[in-house]
Structure formats: structure tokens, C-alpha cells
């Protein structure tokens, strides 16, 4: 997708971020609501560490919960109970429903938007930019003109590498790799992601390390603050992946879709879908996990095909009101969490035989 050049889009986005932060009282609470993957936690940590340097005295970084939509009533209640005067939502999408409609909100994101929230909102979305930045990359670029955060660039790299890989087109990345080494950056990415993929779903440990560590090596080796737990999570996820790789795909009778059925308490379905995306480049691959959430099918959908827009495909299938936990993401990466009956409706619409339904 060809979009607005990043260097053209970035200056007005930086100014919008400055104006939003200047509108807040630094003595009152600001909540940073972020996704729980490496990109989201890194973006959240960048705001969590930079805002105090700008004079904000009460900053809370709150990751989204397991299976939780950022736009659900449960998320609103959890965030509203914190009493924020300002809210920053990052790496969780942009939705017309909004999160806390009565609270001034800054959205920093790179996924395909699903509407524009009303009220006192500032939306910085890199979805239409070229290249599309990861949320942590975007957060770093938005904050860098406001404070000296060169020592936090590694956090932006952890999120960017976690989302876009080693070939991420961020101009700052080569220098960050040189300073901190690619080895330790990759190790930090793997450990941060292992925590949320594990059955324990421990997102507090990696977030606390991102909020306190001086660099990726410290994050990966600071056993006093939980780095050893992260290594244990990685071993668990590796074992679950090894078992899941034995699953064989089933194919739609009517469209370019392949299904892999999984049952694991670990969040391995995105990884399995991504791996099979490379093996089946002509298909959209669905990895469906019936063991991750109670009475729910958690699934990831990935494709290498440029002519398939996965959020549009999923949103074109009626599944009822599922609280915003379905059909978001990027053109080639989507998914959701659905009750079994609703997920079977998706499989039926995509042309899968009744024998493979959950």
C-alpha cells in the first residue's frame, strides 16, 4: 500500500502530540493504555518513562488484559476506576466506540482504523504512512522532540523488531543495533513476547523491566527483577510450539483459506499462523486455539497475499456483538476471540466443511 511519506506525516503528528500533552495538567493522573505484545509494551514504556521527564507526576502504564478488547465495557470500567485526567491509547487500534469518551485521549497506533472516536481525541495513526511504523517506533518519534530520550531508543527498537522484524525500515535502527548489539535486542524481544505467550500471561514482569532497565542486556539478565521467569516462559512456549507444529491444515472448499486447529494454554496461534503463512503463500491461514481462553476460540489469521484484506473479509461476516474483539489489525494480519458458535459461522462463510468446525 502506497501512502503518505513518513517524513511528511511525522511533523504534524509531533505537533499534535505536543499540543495534546500541553493541554493536560502535569499534576494530575495520566493513564497509558497499551497492548501486551513487545510493540505495545514498548510503546507504553516509552510514554511511561518520558512523561515524568516532561514534568508529569502521576503516570500509570496499564496493559490490556488477556482476551480483552480495548473498547469493551470491562476495559472502560477498569480504566475509569483509575480516574485519569488524560488517556494515551497505543497499539490497541482506533475504534469509533472510543475507550473513555469523557477523557481527553491521544491514540498512537498503526493498525487499520475502525472508525474515529468522538469527543476530545487526538489520533496519530501511521496506517496510511509509507512506511507504516510500529507503535513503539512511532511513540519514540513523537516524544523525541519533547525530551532527551536517546537513552530510551532501545525500547523503541524492541517494539519495532518485535512487530516488523530485522528488516524494519526505521532509519534509527542500525545505530541502535550498533550501540546495544542485535544479539541483546533480539533476546529482549524474545523474552518480552514469551511472557504474554505463556500460559501464565505475566505481562507485569516484562513491563516493569522495560520501565526500569538501562538496556536490553540488563532486561534479559536481571534475574532479581524477573528475567529468569521470562526465560522459563520462553521454554514453555517453545515446547507448546513444537507440539502445535504437528497439526495439519484443512482447506476451504470455496476460497483460499486454510485452517489449523490447536488446543494450548499458551498464545501460540499467532506464531503458527505466521509460520504457515510462509508455507502456504497462496492462502490466508487461520490458526484457531480452543485452549487459550475459556469457552472461546482465539484465532489468528495471516496471509502473504497482497490482494486479500483480512479485516475486511472478517468484518464482512456477521457474528453478532462480540465487544470489539474481532476483525481488526493489519491488511495481512487479523483475528479475534469468538464463542464457538460464532467462530463456526466464520468457518461456514469461508467455505470450510462441517467436520472441521469446533
Automatic annotation (TrEMBL):
Q: What residue ranges are annotated as transmembrane?
A: none
Record's SUPFAM superfamilies?
Answer: DHH phosphoesterases
Q: Kindly indicate where the leader peptide sits in this chain.
A: none
PANTHER family in alphabetical order: SINGLE-STRANDED-DNA-SPECIFIC EXONUCLEASE RECJ
What is the name attached to this protein's record? DHH family phosphoesterase
Q: Which organism is it from?
A: Deinococcus aerius
